[in-house]
Amino acid sequence: MIPLTILFHEADMRSHADEPVPALREGACHLWWARRSDAHPELAELLDREERRRATAFYHSADRDRFTVGRALTRLALATYLAEPPGGILIDSKCDRCGRPHGKPRLASGAGGIELSISHSGERVVVAVACDSPLGVDVEPVPPYLATEELAAQVLTAEEVAVLSSLEEAERATAFLTYWTRKEAVAKATGQGLALTLRAFSVSPPGAPARVVTREEGLWQGPMLLHDLDPGPGHVASLAVMGPCDRPVDRDGSTLLAAWQTAVAPGPSRTGDKPSEQT
């Protein structure tokens, strides 16, 4: 049974938002940004049983918060496009290789040709949404220290390693994460994730416009567009899209989450359970 408090229409969210959400047309890509600090116990109501099980399995509360915000924001964002209650939207995350729920997220219904990708790390959470164009997004925090030499040998091509090694030590962490987020976004867009060999393709160096430079034959079919994103201080992020994509548009996911909490509080006590995803 779906709790009555999550069966509210998108108009209830928009009445609390600063501006309406534009339609998701072909070639458009929207990026919904939120923060780990947006986590709230009530957001768990927007997760299905399997997602709640995954959330409670996290040892660190920060990981649990990021996961919960990411999944709640995904349903709220999709509800603005589908004009459906967010609690009724089923997301299929089944891995195509092993069947476990850690694969590329997709709408179980396949409605509207909507494609999506989720990333959360550090203090940032982002949900990318497009129409008829598979995409991948990745965000990473820049730590005070990163073992770039060891990591680069595992995921960068020889040419990329040479560029990284030529930089000043203080620049290498951000530069490596620029390479990493671009490649991780590509891997997510293809649907292969880390099963894709990241050394099998190269991307442009940090500071240059983001693009795929070389790739081994057969890695994926069709074009791959890359965009560097602005996730805010202390973080690096990239977007990859397999198809047409205008300039990505940033949306305020924190406001969307807050609007939902305002819309459902101080409603009646919450009981019941949301059905697990069906594939």
Topology:
Blueprint lengths: L9 H5 L14 E7 L13 H9 L3 H22 L8 E2 L13 E2 L6 E8 L2 E8 L3 E7 L6 H8 L2 H8 L3 H22 L10 E3 L8 E4 L9 E5 L5 E7 L7 E4 H12 L15
Parallel strand pairs: 1-11
Antiparallel strand pairs: 1-5, 2-3, 4-5, 6-10, 7-8, 9-10
Could you explain how this protein is built, in words?
With 279 residues, this protein is an alpha+beta fold. A hairpin with a 5-residue loop joins strand 9 (225-229) and strand 10. Helix 2 (49-57) runs antiparallel to helix 3 (61-82). The protein is 31% helix and 20% strand. It contains seven helices and eleven strands. The longest helix is centred in the first third of the chain and has 22 residues, at 61-82. It folds into two domains: 1-133 and 245-279, Ribosomal Protein L22, Chain A, CATH 3.90.470.20; 136-243, Ribosomal Protein L22, Chain A.
Structural class: alpha+beta
State the helicity in percent bands.
25-40%
SSE order in H/E notation?
Answer: HEHHEEEEEHHHEEEEEH
Q: Supply Rg.
A: 19 Å
**CATH architect. name of the largest domain:** Alpha-Beta Complex
Quick tags:
alpha+beta; disordered N terminus; 2 domains; 20% strand; 7 helices; Ribosomal Protein L22, Chain A; 279 residues
Question: Can you describe this structure in just a few lines?
Answer:
This protein has 279 residues and is an alpha+beta fold. Helices cover 31% and strands 20% of the residues. It has seven helices and eleven strands.
